[in-house]
Design goal:
This protein has about 850 residues and is mainly alpha-helical. The chain contains 47 helices and no strands. Helix 25 runs antiparallel to helix 26.
Length: about 850
């Protein structure tokens, strides 16, 4: 542990550790405490004792330091470390949490908290702490190592493998990392990888018994018994007293039929209560044909483990060979009860019964064996039908597959897996009722068949049965805690209920269990994007896209998140890729058009929106976007056609109604514009821009009273609407000077709050409001007037910048570039100007 000394701590009387004869303080430190006791000195004293391993003396010193300086993160941290070292994990956790309240950036404390949580078996909490460290410092080796350890303990091996691989890249010569990775590989079933990495660990640490022992275990698991024996022998050579190595070596030798060598090692073991020692001795003696000698150790084995089938069978066998038929019968009957399908025990029992002249009983045993063979034959027929059904399902004929699965179930009705496969066939045939019935049957037959519970959860989720789906997904995870798909599906269900944090945790769990599960990475990215954590979201969705490069849903999500990060060029390229993959998708063309519009490529955007309309002529969104692009390009007649269509297809489509009214204003269709604005404010009575524009149109139609009423509603909806306040102050000047004065004061207060002191700045502010309402002509007119009256005023750069941006947005790219360059000369480091000019440059290069 790294014991830290605090700084600038409060003073405390130095009497706390006096009289403790066992805790001898160093003379210099004792003198300093006597002269001027302080929390820093008590911290140093605690550290002194801790380094000597005298934790009973260190603890009270650290406790005094905390009493002295309760707001000192380092004091709490030192006390927490001492508590952890003395196995007081619960108290240590509390102190580490206090430390982090005071110093959230202290990564050592967060790592130590994770370690303490492992001690409390709170593996999920520990993982959370280590992940937080890695979020701040991705290469933190302590967090990587501890997170991998927590994941291995939690049996989340795929995730552990990923972190250990990263750790080995950082510290390639550390044998412990290779050992941990080898264990994780082996537990995850990647035996070849496990053997390769453990061999490397053995090269790095040739004197490591643990490495050799684990290598032997992996070989034995693969039934590579000679290789296992060699590894165990190497471990035993390093420590001849290591009983586990000797026992494992004997087991591997017996399995490879090297009975003499196995016997020599077994007889060196002194483990009187270990079942395996007499059991292996009996097996070895039997293998050597020394049945009489095998009887005694096998009796001891059965005494130590009465419910071990093979020990009972082996003892029954040697007793029969010795002519002890009655006793052999007892043990063989016990073996049969322990494993009714054990053919060798039944056969041997039948032979013993014949020797005892129990002919009928012997015949019964042989009959049971024949029945078992018949059942096995029927099972093979059922398996054959099921296999044919699987083939039909693969070929895309679910109806034929259903018939074959039903045929298999007529022979083997209790086969839960076949019921599950039948459900999949029903699902592909579009029979939801049949699917759910088959899944329920599969789950009843085998409640721990995780795939069936997961599929039933999906079926319920599609039907909107939230609580039922939740129950099934959780049952699937209880049956198989490493089932990534079930974890991801539960995450989707939680996300749909607004439980974003729980959903995020489930997606991370799914990724931990299967780092190559693209859907989980995508779902995690989407939930992070929903929290506006776009950088993290982009990283996850990018992984999903690499794993599933042709999945258009993933690519669409990546494009949208990339756009949110203002990386529009990359976003546009992604949407172009989607259009190539799905040229008949209206949504793909829509997304490409939006990305192009954001790069000031309005002609390109219009072309994409036009194609979207061709593919989906009844889509109000496609019509709206085509109308919007036409509006921005000043083609008001075409914009009007598309926007009218959008509003006809979706009468309550507020953005389309607003833009339609604005288009009609540009076409001098004032009555129609006012009529559509009236419809809009009925749908959105708090839409201040619509109310303001409605007032303008009513004023043009010689309805000043109606205009005043709409502007008053606008300022009620948005008290900061400067133009509405300004118009009200002017319109009421003669009819209601008091009210006009009040509006003028409010307008002036807004100007003052925004530090707008001259007409140029006021016009600039009005222009931004008009631009926000997509009234490009009004915004452009006001900005040009503002530049005229500004001269060399302080707002000159911003006026040119905003005019340039609005011109680009409204399709006048060349004029927009001129204004932006004028602004750049005045503000050479402005990021908005630089980014916009970069987009224009990129756009020009592609033309």
């Amino acid at each position: 542990m790294n014991w830290r000394n605090g700084a600038a701590l409060i003073v405390l009387a130095a009497s706390s550790l006096r009289g403790d004869s066992e805790c001898r303080k160093p003379a210099e430190l004792a003198a300093q405490l006597e002269a001027r006791p302080s929390a820093q000195l008590y911290g140093a004293l605690g550290g002194y004792f801790a380094k000597k391993g005298e934790l009973a003396c260190a603890l009270p010193a650290f406790q005094r330091a905390v009493q002295l300086a309760p707001k000192s993160a380092e004091a709490h941290f030192n006390l927490a470390l001492a508590l952890l070292e003395t196995h007081s994990a619960q108290k240590a956790v509390a102190e580490f949490r206090l430390t982090l309240e005071l110093r959230p950036d202290l990564l050592a404390a967060r790592n130590a908290l994770g370690t303490a949580l492992i001690e409390q078996n709170d593996l999920s909490g520990a993982q959370t702490e280590f992940r937080e460290v890695l979020r701040v410092e991705p290469a933190n080796s302590v967090a990587l190592r501890n997170l991998a350890r927590a994941l291995i303990l939690d049996r989340r091996f795929p995730a552990a493998i990923g972190y250990l691989q990263q750790l080995i890249k950082q510290e390639p010569s550390e044998p412990g990392h290779h050992l941990a990775l080898g264990v994780a590989y082996a537990e995850n079933g990647a035996v070849g990888d496990a053997i390769a990495i453990l061999k490397k660990a053995a090269i790095l640490a040739p004197r490591s018994l643990v490495v050799q022992f684990n290598l032997g275990g992996v070989y034995a698991h693969q039934k590579m018994y000679r290789e296992a024996a060699a590894a165990y022998a190497a471990a035993l050579k390093l420590d001849p007293s290591h009983a586990d190595s000797r026992l494992s070596l004997a087991r591997a030798l017996a399995a490879s039929r090297d009975y003499e060598e196995a016997l020599s090692h077994i007889r060196e073991l002194r483990l009187p209560r270990n079942f395996e020692v007499p059991y292996l001795e009996g097996l070895a003696l039997r293998g050597l044909g020394r049945n009489a000698e095998a009887e005694a150790p096998l009796r001891r084995a059965v005494q130590l483990s009465p419910d071990h089938y093979d020990a009972r069978y082996q003892l029954g066998f040697v007793l029969a060979k010795a002519g002890k038929f009655k006793e052999a019968k007892t043990h063989l009957e016990q073996a049969r009860q322990l494993n009714p399908s054990g053919a060798e025990a039944r056969f041997q029992l039948a032979a013993v019964l014949r020797e005892l002249n129990e002919t009928e009983a012997a015949r019964t045993e042989l009959g049971a064996m024949q029945d078992a063979k018949r059942r096995e034959s029927q099972d093979k027929i059922a398996d054959s039908s099921a296999a044919m059904a699987n083939d039909e399902l693969e070929r895309g004929d679910p109806h034929k597959a259903v018939k074959l699965y039903e045929q298999a179930l007529s022979i083997d009705p209790g086969n839960a897996k076949t019921h599950y496969n039948l459900a999949l066939a029903y699902a592909k045939a579009g029979d939801l009722t049949g699917e759910q019935a088959a899944l329920k049957k599969a789950s009843t037959l085998d409640p721990r068949l995780a795939v069936a519970r997961n599929q039933l959860g999906l079926s319920y989720m599609k039907a909107g049965l939230v609580s039922e789906a939740d129950l099934e997904f959780r049952a699937a995870l209880e049956a198989d805690p490493r089932f990534a798909e079930a974890a991801s599906n539960l995450g989707v269900l939680l996300g749909q209920q607004g439980k974003a944090l729980e959903a995020e945790n489930m997606f991370r769990q799914a990724i931990d269990h299967n780092p190559d599960y693209s859907q989980a990475h995508l779902n995690l990215g989407l939930i992070l994007a929903g929290k506006e954590r776009f950088g993290e979201a982009q990283k996850e969705i990018d992984i999903a896209a690499r794993l599933a490069p042709s999945d258009t849903r993933t690519l669409t999500a990546l494009g949208m998140v990339t756009a949110k990060l203002d990386r529009w060029k990359e976003a546009a390229e992604l949407f172009r890729k989607i259009v190539k993959l799905e040229p008949s998708s209206a949504e793909a063309h829509l997304n490409l058009g939006i990305a192009l519009a954001d790069q000031f490529d309005l002609p390109g955007a219009l072309a994409s929106f036009t194609e979207a309309v061709r593919l989906a002529p009844d889509s109000p969104v496609a019509r709206y976007n085509k109308g919007r692009a036409s509006f921005d390009l000043r083609d008001y007649e075409k914009a009007h056609v598309e926007l009218e269509s959008a509003c006809r297809l979706q009468p309550d489509f507020a953005p389309a109604l607003y833009l339609l009214a604005l288009t009609e204003k540009q076409l001098n269709q004032n009555e129609s514009s006012a009529r559509n604005l009236k419809r809009l404010v009925a749908i959105e009575p708090q839409n201040a821009e619509a109310l303001y524009l409605h007032g303008q149109m009513l004023q043009k139609l010689d309805d000043p009273g109606g205009a005043l009423a709409e502007w008053e509603k606008a300022v009620a909806a948005n008290p900061q609407h400067a133009e509405a306040l300004y118009n009200l102050s002017r319109a009421l000047q003669e009819s209601d000077p008091t009210k006009a004065s009040d509006y003028r004061k409010r307008f002036t207060a807004i100007q003052r709050a925004k530090q707008l002191t001259d007409r140029a700045e006021t016009l600039g502010n009005f222009a931004l409001s008009a631009a926000a309402a997509r009234d490009w002509p009004r915004a452009i007119s006001q900005l040009r007037e503002g530049i005229q009256v500004c001269g060399e005023c302080r707002s000159k750069a911003d006026l040119h910048k905003n005019l340039g941006l609005i011109l680009c947005r409204s399709g006048e790219v060349d004029d927009g570039a001129k204004e932006l360059n004028a602004a750049l000369r005045l503000k050479p480091t402005d990021p908005d100007i630089l980014r916009s000019l970069e987009i224009l440059k990129s756009h020009a290069a592609t033309q």
